Amino acid sequence: MTIYYRVGSPKHALGMSDFQEALKVSIDAFCKARGQAEPKRVLAIPPDHTRMDSQAGPITQAAWKLLGDRLTDVMPALGTHEAMKEPELKKMFGDLPRDLIRVHRFRTDVDTLGFVDQEFVTQATDGIYSKPWPAQVNRIISQGGHDLILSIGQVVPHEVIGMANYTKNIFVGTGGSAGIDDSHYLSALYGCERIMGRCDNPLRRILNRGAEMFLTPYPILYVLTVVESTLDAGPVVRGIFIGDDHSVFFQAGELSAKVNCFRLDRAPEKLVVWMDPDKYKKTWVGNKAIYRTRMAVADGGTIVVVAPGVDRFGEHAEGDALIREHGYRTTQEILERTRTHEGLAKNLSIASHLIHGSPDGRFEVEYCPGGLTKQEIEGVCFRYGDWKAAMERYRIEGLKDGWHTTADGQEYYFVRNPGLGLWMHRGHQHAFE
Fold first, then answer.
1. Exposed, middle or buried: residue 356 (CB in 10 Å: 0-12, 13-18, 19+)?
2. Cα(23)–Cα(43) distance, rounded to whole angstroms?
3. Superfamily of domain 262-425
4. What's the CATH number of domain 3-259, 3.20.20.300, 3.30.70.20, 3.90.105.20, 3.40.50.11440?
5. Band of pLDDT at residue 81, cut at 50, 70 and 90
6. Which of 48, 153, 174, 345 satisfies CB 3.0 to 4.6 Å to 138 for a cystine?
7. pTM recorded for the entire structure
């Protein structure tokens, strides 16, 4: 097990020709190392459109052009997200044949490969969580008979896993209800601010242990990108790392820490975040605006979420109803409701989402959605704002990341693409250099 391809630095700018070369070199080396002929039946597992900046769409297209008919299946790692619709498929995958697309159904289409034992979980979480963790994957992985599986995605700061992707793409992206619920909940109990931007954390140790125990029989090759959101050129791929062991993730994570973690010398009283309506249609994903900036905003300050595409809370009807019922209350309130409300206790990923999005009494959130009413927003414990008024007040059209001032003299810090970073002020108790 090794790294077959690695190119990257804060100065690199990589594109389609680099993707094609990286895939060809890596697939050839991977098959040679395993003593097998060139692959005849290949599965690609990219993320969905909410991770479009990962460039997993173009990389999947590059794999198709390289492999042709040998690429037999493409299954977006939806996790609990809705299946991608045609406009989303077109924007992400272009002319990739639609008959290759498979839909992951996290409630029905999974196999439980085994359990990471309770002793390991307890030790990894410093005693905060003490249950065996179920390692679950979609049956297309465990029963599909592929001789190559390309797990494609981006390493970037993440609220549940510290740094996204690698084994998360398999165990969460194609996982089942039990594995997803337990993983998110144990991480929420540990505290998102203690793990964001860190490669080594409790949940990562558990997932990587699960990979060591249960994924080695499957020919999984991890294709990892590191992408920076630049001021002028938009998202730029700074690195491609391809391999089949933990080191490929940690090396990608080292580069991500350099280009995706932003440290502010002072904490903004007002922090304004733009949410692209093509990607963010529910608070379930749109709350990245809160997760990724909560370590930056000042105590008593406000995060303004400008989200014209958001018209729902949850990905599914049951989750949407639970978010509406319980709201983004304090962590202690959500923990208590998890103990006393059966619906929330049976949907721990919802409880985790509420904890991650909670201001916890330290700051306020002003949500400016395009499709939710003032009553609905206030019902989940946020403050309501008009998105059109926010666009005008903060001059968001064409605005670059950084410090700005409104026409009436109010200073604010602006973030255009929260999915590509982590913002923290140097005085925050969990900030790191």
1. buried
2. 14
3. LarA, C-terminal domain (3.90.226.30)
4. 3.40.50.11440
5. confident
6. 174
7. 0.92
